[in-house]
Amino acid sequence: MSDEGFGYEYESDGGWSDNEGDEEQNENEVMIINTFYEAEQAKDKNPDEALEKFETVILLEEQEGKSENTFKSLEYIVVISLMTNQVEKALDAYKKLMKMIDKVARNDKSTAIQNILEAVTDAEDASLKDQFYTLTLDVLIDSDRKMWMDIQIKLGKLYLEKEEFGKLETLIDQLKAECTKTEEPTMQKSSSGIAGESFNQYDSYLSEVYCLEIQLCVELNDSKRLRAVYAETEKMSTVINDPRVTGVIKEHGGKMFMKEKQWKKACDELFESFKSYQEVANSQAKTILKYVILASIISNSEINYADTREAKVYQEDLEISALMRLRVAYEKNDYGDILNILTKIKKDDFMEKCLDDFMRNIRLNALIIKIRPYKNVELKFLARELQISEKEVKTLLVELILDQRIDGKIDNNYLELSSAKKDVITKKKHNAISKWLDNLSELQEKLIQG
């Protein structure tokens, strides 16, 4: 019987070779994947073993002419090397990774770079930061301008955190120039689809640059420049839509107005800051709300900011409740209750300075009330009543006398009062009327002579 009768089909030598090649290829792919996941499992507990396995993955893929896991392996090698202080290995791997950034998805590229730069920030070698950022920016400046801007902003925040203000100053100038380059504007459409105001595609970045500059001004205590930069951000209100940026800008704008005793403006700006911080769950939100309530008390605002929708979550907070009681005590001129409430409120340096002005006004009003029944009163008594020093009492009394809010004089350690505030006001009115009559008489004489 012939072989043909059985219908057997024999594989050619080439066919067998192809199948063996496929099997070998599949085995290599499985080995690569297994090695990669073993490395991931080992990276926290055994970094040296993980490094070796990631390097094996790269070698195997290079032999196969593939790179599916090479980019991620290089990212892990950089981060682990930085954690284990293997600087040269980290730099070498990062250079290889940066040569591959055009071959991976933008999200993968962005995530890898951000993770590596975060690791660089925590590295012991401070100079390493500059090397990594420089390498990153040199590659991105031509290949991905927007990511280049993102990294520059990140670098600016790092300079601010490390108090490298000279470098930050230079960077801010560079980024301003970049953001204000002449380019074709884009028409911004409203929700109705109608084209509105044109905007530069870098305006959102410019707002972040201004945010950095405002924080720099605060650190350098440059109030004049702060006001100028803040005015520029006001012109950009339609394009500043990142609550993280808005929160910082409005916070420092509000503080600026509080220092200038523009309490109403301070309330408005700080409340916007509070809402922005609340939106992104920033822990600074509560502190800003405390500023808002304090400014509203001083400005005699009728708005109960603690009762707003955004602040509802803080209604049971002990400090916020204390500030609301402070408002009631302030309106009643209850000096003792005010002092008691203030002991229950945690105060930072800025709030302490604001409370200095607040307490000065409180003490001035308290002094007027305390001295009302007397014609002569000892400074020591007033100091004891207000719980401050005699020197502070004397300073406050001098201010009241110069402002003609009381009529009296200080003789040794006593205040001698000659009239009440009402008499002082009557005297001032009388003097004003007399002066007006004298001017009227002079005018009449000139008319007669004319």
Would you kindly provide a written description of the structure presented here, covering whatever features stand out?
This protein has helices at about 5, 15-40, 45-65, 70-85, 85-100, 105-120, 125-145, 145-160, 165-180, 205-220, 225-235, 245-260, 265-280, 285-300, 320-330, 335-340, 350-370, 380-385, 390-400, 420-450; strands at about 185-190, 195-200, 375-380, 405-410, 415-420. It has about 450 residues and is mostly helical. It has a domain at about 25-140: Tetratricopeptide repeat domain (Serine Threonine Protein Phosphatase 5, Tetratricopeptide repeat, Alpha Horseshoe). The strands form two sheets. A three-stranded antiparallel sheet has the order 3-5-4. It is elongated, with a radius of gyration of 36 Å. The protein starts with a helix and ends with a helix. The model is unreliable at about 1-15 and about 185-200 (pLDDT under 50).
